[in-house]
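Project standup — Tuesday

K.O.: blocked on the structure for the chain from last sprint. Re-posting the sequence here as requested.
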Amino acid sequence: MHDCHPSASCTEVAKPERYTCSCRNGYSDMDLNKPGRICKELVNECTNSHLNNCSRFADCIDREIGYECVCKTGYRDRNPAKPGTNCTL
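H.V.: unblocked you, prediction finished:
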């Protein structure tokens, strides 16, 4: 029996009960100290405006975990504490 995440692959490396886990494609490993135990599905929040809070005058940059909003050239960031959410000329 193994403790790999359901979205991970389990590979036997030696007997008895020795194996490695690794998150499958499309998933990110959330605990590098225990690989393949906590796998989170990768989501591109930038493809859907309901999944991000970027201003319409900002570029949404997808990251492995989450996203980043950056005001477009020529626009000023009115709320540096929440970058790219309130961009004005």
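K.O.: great, moving the ticket to review. Residues 8-41 form one domain. The chain has a mean pLDDT of 93.
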